[in-house]
Amino acid sequence: MPIYEYQCSSCGHQLEAIQKFSDAPLVDCPACKAAGLKKMLSVPGFRLKGGGWYETDFKTGAKKNLAGAEAPAACPATGCAGGGCTAGE
């Protein structure tokens, strides 16, 4: 379930709430009891790591552009750049 951040427009109180997508947004502030809660936009706090991801994801330094480092040369006969071209054989 996603975590939503709310801020009260009356008192400025902020809170986080774990809610289902189908749940109605919270309205009442627990601090001042006013009906002034509004959802805030926030960035998710996770990062995809480990095996199984694309080789260029989250690389640093010299390893950052592995996919575009050395493109295969184009075939002089057809212009393809697949590396498995058999037109010149």
Description:
It is built from no helices and three strands. Strands 2-1-3 form a three-stranded antiparallel sheet, with no helix packed on it. The chain has a domain of 38 residues. The protein is mainly beta and 89 residues long.
How many helical stretches? 0
User: How helical, in percent, are the residues?
Assistant: under 10%
Q: Give, in spatial order, the strands making up the sheet with the most strands.
A: 2-1-3
How many strand units? Answer: 3
**Strand content bin:** 15-25%
Query: What is the ordering of alpha helices and beta strands?
Result: EEE
Major sheet size, sense and barrel closure: 3 strands, antiparallel
Report the end-to-end length measured between terminal Cα atoms.
57 Å
Rg over C-alpha atoms, rounded to the nearest angstrom: 26 Å
What is the 3D shape?
elongated
Mean pLDDT: 75
Which residue ranges are poorly predicted, with pLDDT under 50 across at least 5 consecutive positions? none
